[in-house]
Amino acid sequence: MLGLDVSFSALRVTPEWCAARRAEGYELFVGDLWTGNRPVPGIEQAMRTWREAGGKIAGYFCAHDATPLETHFQAAKKSAGAEWNNLRFVAVDVEIDPASEQGVLAACQRVVDEGKRVVLYTARWFWVGRMGDPQSCATYPLWDAHYGVHPTLEAPGYGGWSGKVGHQ
Q: 67, 94 in Cβ contact below 8 A?
């Protein structure tokens, strides 16, 4: 399934834009709910517009150890607004320092506790280089940020993951 990661361009999402992207074959809209220090303006309306155009929606939020997890989580939920209940999954975005294995596990569990499907979004450069390649998060589905390569869903070769549910 083709999807779009919509972050800082949420205000440009119109019914016409959605119709054009849907005609190109995009089905999933993944909205940036929280950058780790601020919400993305217009993301709730952008997700609603996409959903009303017949697409599926999901969201992600950055979580880092410099701010309490509940602050990140509640900001993401508030940003999604009424669309929160329509999200197919919520990804925990792990690519901002400081991050820890315990913090990532707690963030994933917080999403699960809310009754949502969780996905972990990260990249090898961060997971290995900044976090030391912990293996304990491999029970959560991986959305791998690996740009400039042919997308596959094979094992990424880090973190203990045996495959990926998404490739960016």
A: no
Torsion of the alpha carbons at 130, 127, 9 and 91, rounded to the nearest 10: -130
- On whether the pTM is more than 0.85, the answer is yes
Comparing CA positions, the residue from 158, 131, 134, 135 lying closest to residue 146 is 158
The residue type found at 73 is F
CB 63 within 8 A of CB 94: yes
State the CB neighbour count (10 A cutoff) for residue 27. Answer: 14
| Cα(167)–Cα(152) distance, integer angstroms | 7
Comparing CA positions, the residue from 43, 42, 51 lying closest to residue 15 is 51
Residue with tokens 């952008």: 46
CA gap 135, 30 in Å, rounded: 26
pLDDT-derived band at 17, boundaries 50, 70, 90: very high
Per-residue pLDDT tens digits for 63-112: 999 999 999 999 999 999 999 999 999 999 999 999 999 999 999 999 99
